[in-house]
């Protein structure tokens, strides 16, 4: 591209080899170089972003090690993902970046940034839902619902319903699920529940749920409203704990109707949930490590475990529940059978 620099470049290469200051790698296998090296030094490029996935230092030509903030960090903080048959597609938490990982080969590809979105924004997308050869990127601080075609490597944007209550920087949705050609969205700081019909490409919203609930219980709800949900497939129900309260929404996937369950004492609060038709476990997003069991047969809950550490999201895998610690490397495991 710059033939006038060729001779100077060859001299630099010759000097580098003769002085044996490092390994001169001119092979096409960039993944081996990423694996064997200790840090990256050079100009910004797609390789910079791939290298950031390793967690090893990324040092730019100005000799400044990048700090962990949204404006200068090129390392990748993982947030939303979809997985199938050993392949993972995920977005970066700290900038507009979309990736694919082959777990069997241990290789990661940078697929690019999502068109129409800003570059340096945290939590552009909070979830990814796979539908055949398409991936639906659920907007957090993003401005649109986005469909990504795996086969064509293309993005299509769908405008969100208007909401005058949202402020700049608010996280719109925390998650979503797919059922019967419809995407169902769980709001975070968005004031409405929504579903998107994949066939007609049209929206339906429920913006009166909060008023109905506040009138029923005489409470005032503040955003963020939700962090998590779980699906009971046989019953076709979504269970959605309202953050900071002891109220669980039973959302009928078939009818779209909601029922409210107020569990335990009024000073209980839950944010995370997972389980199956036999029982679910509830975890509070606070400084206590208390985990409750709810057997779905009323409004009674029982203490499952109490720990000095606080927890975050849960995962139900068969008859085993995993709940990770909110801060740090610690995980709680429980067998639902024993």
SSE topology sketch:
Blueprint: H1 6-19, H2 30-36, E1 40-42, H3 46-52, E2 58-60, E3 78-84, E4 87-92, E5 98-102, E6 107-112, E7 125-131, E8 134-139, E9 144-149, E10 154-159, E11 173-179, E12 182-187, E13 193-197, E14 202-206, H4 209-217, E15 230-232, E16 237-241, E17 247-252, E18 258-262, E19 272-275, E20 280-283, E21 289-294, E22 302-307, E23 311-317, E24 320-325, E25 331-335
Parallel strand pairs: 1-2
Antiparallel strand pairs: 3-4, 4-5, 5-6, 7-8, 8-9, 9-10, 11-12, 12-13, 13-14, 15-16, 16-17, 17-18, 19-20, 20-21, 21-22, 23-24, 24-25
> Ranges with pLDDT <50 over ≥5 residues?
62-73, 315-330
CATH class of the largest domain: Mainly Beta
Number of domains: 2
pLDDT averaged residue by residue = 80
CATH topology value of the largest domain: Methylamine Dehydrogenase, Chain H
Protein structure class? mainly beta
**What is the N-to-C succession of helices and strands?**
HHEHEEEEEEEEEEEEEHEEEEEEEEEEE
Distance between the termini: 67 Å
User: Tell me about the biggest sheet?
Assistant: 4 strands, antiparallel
Helix content: 10-25%
Strand count: 25
What's the architecture of the largest domain, going by CATH?
7 Propeller
CATH superfamily of the largest domain: YVTN repeat-like/Quinoprotein amine dehydrogenase
């Amino acid at each position: 591209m710059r033939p006038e620099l060729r001779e100077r470049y060859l001299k630099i290469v010759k000097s580098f080899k003769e002085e044996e200051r490092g390994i001169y790698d001119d092979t096409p296998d960039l993944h081996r170089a990423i694996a064997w090296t200790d840090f990256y030094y050079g100009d910004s490029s797609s390789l910079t972003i791939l290298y950031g996935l390793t967690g090893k230092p990324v040092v730019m030509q100005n000799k400044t090690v990048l700090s962990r903030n949204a404006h200068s960090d090129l390392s990748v903080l993982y947030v939303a993902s979809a997985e199938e048959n050993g392949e993972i597609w995920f977005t970066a938490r700290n900038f507009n970046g979309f990736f694919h990982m082959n777990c069997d080969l241990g290789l990661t590809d940078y697929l690019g940034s999502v068109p129409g979105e800003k570059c340096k924004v945290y939590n552009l997308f909070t979830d990814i839902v796979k539908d055949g050869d398409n991936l639906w990127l659920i907007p957090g601080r993003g401005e649109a619902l986005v469909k990504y075609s795996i086969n064509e490597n293309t993005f299509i944007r769908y405008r969100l319903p208007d909401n005058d209550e949202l402020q700049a920087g608010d996280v719109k949705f925390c998650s979503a699920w797919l059922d019967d050609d419809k995407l169902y969205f769980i709001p975070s700081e968005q004031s409405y529940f929504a579903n998107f019909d994949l066939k007609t490409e049209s929206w339906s919203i429920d913006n009166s749920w909060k008023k109905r609930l506040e009138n029923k219980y005489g409470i005032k709800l503040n955003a963020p409203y939700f962090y998590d949900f779980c699906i009971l497939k046989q019953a076709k129900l979504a269970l959605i704990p309202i953050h900071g309260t002891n109220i669980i929404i039973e959302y009928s996937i078939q009818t779209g109707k909601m029922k409210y369950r107020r569990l335990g004492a009024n000073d209980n609060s839950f944010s995370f949930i997972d389980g199956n038709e036999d029982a679910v476990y509830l975890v509070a997003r606070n400084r206590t490590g208390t985990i409750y069991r709810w057997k779905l047969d009323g409004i009674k809950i029982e203490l499952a475990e109490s720990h000095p550490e606080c927890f975050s999201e849960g995962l139900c895998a068969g008859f085993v529940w995993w709940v990770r610690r909110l801060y740090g490397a610690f995980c709680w495991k429980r067998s639902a059978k024993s």
